[in-house]
C-alpha cells in the first residue's frame, strides 16, 4: 500500500493543504485541480503514480481544506491563486515538475509556465483548456456575460452553478455508466462549497475567467518555443471543455499526444486505469 501524506503549509498567512506521495528524490508530478473540487479529485491517481513520481496535489485557496478567506480579505483572481501556488512550490522545495491540469488548474499552470518556463518538464492536460476551440458555448455564455457586466441579473443566471444539481451534473454528464461515479465525490464538493462566503469567492473567479482567455496567445507561443512534451487526455463528452480543446494542442505542439476517452469532465472518476496506463506510456517516451 502506498502511503499518501496530508500536510498543511502556511503561505503569506494562508494555510495551503496538500497531499503528497512518492520518493522525495523522484521527478515531481504537480496536480492542479479544477472547479468545484480540490485535491480530493486526485485521491486515487496519487498512489497509482507514486512509484515513479513525487506526486504533490495542493488545494487552491477557497477550495478543499486550504484557507477560504472572504472575498473582502482575499482577491479571488487567477493571478492571486497562481501567486500562492508559486510560493507553495518554493516552500515545498519544488523547482521543476511535470504538471497535470484539470479545469481551473490549467490557467494557474499556464501562468506558472509563463513566469518560469524552465521549470515545466511536461504538461498533462485533462480537460484543461488552452484554446478557444475548447469552450462549449452554451455553458460559457453566462460566464462571459457576468464577466462583462456583473449585474444582479447576470449573477442570478450563474448562481445555479454553485448548487447541488450543477455540481452533481459536472460529475455525471457524458459518462455512459454513471454507476462508476462514487457519489461521495460530489457530496465532498457540495459540503465545502456550502461554507459561508464561498459563493462570493467563486463568483469572483467566474468574473475573472476572461483573463485566462486573454492569456492564450502567450501560452501558445510558449508551447511552440519550448517544445515541452504535451499529453492531452480528455473526457470527449465533456460539455464544459469540448474535445476540440484537446486536439487544438497540436496546433502549437505538433507532437502532442491526444487521447479522447468515452467520459466526461471528471475523467478520473470513471477512467482511472486508462489514464494511469496512458500517462505511464507517454512518460516513457521522453
From TrEMBL:
Protein's UniProt name: Alpha/beta hydrolase
Record key words, sorted: Hydrolase
Domain of life: Bacteria
Keyword Hydrolase: yes
Coiled-coil positions: none
InterPro entries: AB_hydrolase_1, AB_hydrolase_fold, Epox_hydrolase-like, Haloalkane_dehalogenase
Record domain AB hydrolase-1: where: 27-271
SUPFAM superfamilies the record matches: alpha/beta-Hydrolases
Gene Ontology MF, one: epoxide hydrolase activity
Hydrolase listed as a keyword: yes
Amino acid at each position: 500500500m502506498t502511503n499518501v501524506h496530508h500536510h498543511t503549509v502556511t503561505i503569506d498567512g494562508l494555510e495551503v493543504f496538500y497531499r503528497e506521495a512518492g520518493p522525495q528524490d523522484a521527478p515531481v508530478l504537480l496536480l492542479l485541480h479544477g472547479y468545484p473540487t480540490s485535491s480530493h479529485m486526485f485521491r486515487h491517481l496519487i498512489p497509482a503514480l507514486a512509484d515513479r513520481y513525487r506526486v504533490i496535489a495542493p488545494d487552491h485557496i477557497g477550495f478543499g481544506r486550504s484557507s477560504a478567506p472572504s472575498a473582502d480579505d482575499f482577491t479571488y483572481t487567477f493571478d492571486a491563486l497562481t501567486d500562492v501556488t508559486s510560493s507553495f512550490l518554493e516552500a515545498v522545495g519544488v523547482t521543476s515538475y511535470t504538471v497535470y491540469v484539470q479545469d481551473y488548474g490549467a490557467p494557474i499552470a499556464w501562468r506558472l509556465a509563463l513566469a518560469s518556463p524552465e521549470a515545466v518538464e511536461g504538461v498533462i492536460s485533462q480537460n484543461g483548456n488552452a484554446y478557444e476551440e475548447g469552450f462549449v458555448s452554451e455553458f460559457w455564455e453566462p460566464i462571459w456575460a457576468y464577466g462583462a457586466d456583473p449585474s444582479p441579473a447576470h449573477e442570478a443566471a450563474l448562481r445555479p452553478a454553485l448548487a447541488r444539481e450543477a455540481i452533481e451534473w459536472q460529475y455525471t454528464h457524458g459518462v455512459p455508466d454513471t454507476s462508476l461515479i462514487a457519489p461521495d465525490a460530489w457530496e465532498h464538493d457540495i459540503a465545502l462549497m456550502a461554507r459561508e462566503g464561498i459563493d462570493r469567492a467563486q463568483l469572483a473567479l467566474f468574473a475573472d475567467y476572461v483573463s485566462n482567455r486573454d492569456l492564450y496567445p502567450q501560452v501558445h507561443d510558449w508551447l511552440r518555443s519550448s517544445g515541452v512534451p504535451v499529453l492531452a487526455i480528455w473526457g470527449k463528452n465533456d460539455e464544459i471543455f469540448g474535445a476540440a480543446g484537446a486536439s487544438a494542442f497540436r496546433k502549437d505542439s505538433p507532437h502532442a499526444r491526444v487521447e479522447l476517452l468515452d467520459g466526461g469532465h471528471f475523467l478520473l472518476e470513471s477512467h482511472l486505469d486508462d489514464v494511469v496506463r496512458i500517462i505511464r506510456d507517454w512518460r516513457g517516451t521522453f
